[in-house]
């Protein structure tokens, strides 16, 4: 069985609320990218884990759908997905409770019924969907 490995590193200095951190990914797309309390719980400059999960989920789902569509003989003209991660307080901590995926797709010659079936299969089969312990919703629009 084949396996693929991807990695990222986090560095942190200081306490939880007043400390600062940086994230670096294997690919170098993120290199010492700033994150901290203000980027996670307020709107400070930098990134945060939930934003990165949203990007990963949007990318994973969209690619999975492109494979589903191509496999069914329908090459998409355009697939645009937004992912909104909901972080909710749970006791003294926090949890990712939900991810709302919103898709706008342009796929010539595809029926609404087949589109919905393939989009649902991509949502269920995407590796990021499989790893999240959250409610995942999909609002999918097939544009003409």
Automatic annotation (TrEMBL):
Residues 1-27 are annotated as: Disordered. SUPFAM superfamilies: OsmC-like (SSF82784). GO terms for biological process: response to oxidative stress. It holds the Pfam family OsmC. Gene3D superfamilies: 3.30.300.20. InterPro entries: KH_dom-like_a/b, OsmC/Ohr_fam, OsmC/Ohrsf, OsmC_Ohr_Peroxiredoxin, Peroxiredoxin_OsmC. GO terms for molecular function: peroxidase activity. This is Osmotically inducible protein OsmC. It comes from Belnapia rosea.
